[in-house]
Write a structure and sequence with these properties.
The protein is an alpha/beta fold and 380 residues long. Helices cover 28% and strands 23% of the residues. Helix 5 packs antiparallel against helix 6. The model has no long low-confidence stretch (mean pLDDT 92).
């Protein structure tokens, strides 16, 4: 049994940021990661053309700014390099190939007992930690909905986390389910690669540009959310037109209000709207049933597809291994309390990266957790 002050589960941006903030206070900690690298979501489960949709000043992790010459909206590879440099320069050395099997609180020892499988050596390890930080995040496991007849589909279907680029889909009829950021960008990439692309829009969305989102985030510093929402929605309509004409229902509540209250992000257009307007990308409503390669839609139409890509989000898997923490996490593995009170539980349990507020929320979580642990240690 290895004893440590703080154990952090997950070496994505949330885990790295929390470790960096603890290092800043000289608080001993270790980071356990099931994969063989930092930032595995960015390195292994993101498509090639991905970039930060939020301006870089809102995406820096604590104690290390982006290079001054970095582009405003950083490409995926640049952000990956930043994460690797962050871990190296701050002295974070995650223990890779560590899959957490269980974590429970021992009242007698006043410690979290963490059982971990070292998948590289095929052996088990045990840790006792005064504090436990869950930094596995909201995007832990790809979610594919249980559509009627999906098992009968005779083409290929994958989650967006498995999609890299459109090269292998050229000349094929491809359905993208979901019109969030991943869905719209993948549809655009597929169309550019020569695929006949259709996207399913099953719920109302806000579609903005990167520049409008940046302006909105800057205005939120000086104006009330309701006024900012009015401004950005007006600018979006002027820039993109009335998207409802093309089968995309617009949300009635403002984009920043929705983000603050539900965590639902606006969709950033990278060029797909132009292709939707010209008919290069088709928009269909919800899928009703799949039969072989035929897919029936809510509007009564039927179309054949060679492949389906599910850009349908992720789910948290915390409840699979965390045997305590009902005060912090609900049954879905997400915080019970809304931001900004979501990050702290009982008995030294914390979560980072669950605020539904991107990299900015991760930085705030990491700093709050480190300060709270420092205070707890000073009082013990």
């Amino acid at each position: 049994m290895e004893k440590i002050v703080v154990v952090i589960i997950g070496a994505g941006p949330a885990g790295l940021a929390t470790s960096a903030c603890l290092n800043h206070f000289s608080i001993p900690n270790i980071v356990l990661e099931r994969e063989d690298c930092c930032g595995s979501l960015w390195k292994k489960r993101s498509y090639d053309r991905m970039s930060l949709h939020i301006a870089k000043q809102f995406c820096e992790l604590p104690h290390m700014p982006f290079p001054s010459n970095a582009p405003t909206f950083m490409p995926r590879i640049d952000f990956i390099n930043y994460l690797d440099n962050y871990a190296s320069q701050i002295g974070i050395n995650p223990r890779f190939h560590r899959s957490v099997e269980s974590a429970s609180y021992d009242q007698n020892a006043k410690s979290w007992i963490i059982e971990v499988k070292n998948t590289a050596l095929d052996k088990f390890e045990f840790y006792a930690a005064q504090f436990l930080v869950v930094a596995t995040g909201e995007n832990n496991e790809g979610l594919i909905p249980e559509l009627p007849g999906l098992d009968s589909f005779r083409g290929e279907y994958i989650h967006s986390s498995q999609y890299k680029n459109g090269n292998t889909f050229s000349g094929k009829d491809v359905l993208v389910v979901g019109c969030g950021n991943s869905g719209l960008e993948i549809a655009y990439d597929l169309s550019n690669s020569g695929a006949q692309t259709t996207i399913v829009s099953h719920r109302p969305v806000h579609i903005l540009t990167k520049e409008i989102v940046l302006l909105g985030m800057l205005l939120l510093k000086i104006l009330p959310c309701k006024l900012v929402d009015y401004i950005v929605m007006l600018l979006s309509k002027q820039k993109l037109g009335d998207i409802s004409h093309y089968g995309l229902k617009r949300q009635t509540m403002g984009p920043f209000y929705l983000k603050q209250t539900t965590g639902q992000s606006p969709t950033i257009d990278v060029g797909a709207i132009g292709k939707i307007k010209t008919g290069e990308i088709k928009v269909f409503p919800s899928v009703m049933r799949i039969n072989g390669k035929e897919i029936n839609f809510e509007n009564g139409k039927t179309k054949q597809f060679d492949a389906i890509i599910f850009a349908t989000g992720y789910r948290s898997t915390v409840r699979n291994w965390l045997q305590e923490g009902e005060d912090l996490f609900n049954d879905s593995g997400m915080p019970k309390r809304s931001s900004p009170s979501h990050w702290k539980g009982e008995n030294g349990l914390y979560c980072a990266g669950f605020a539904r507020n991107g990299l900015l929320g991760i930085s705030v979580d990491a700093q709050n957790i480190a300060k709270d642990i420092k205070l707890a240690l000073s009082q013990s």
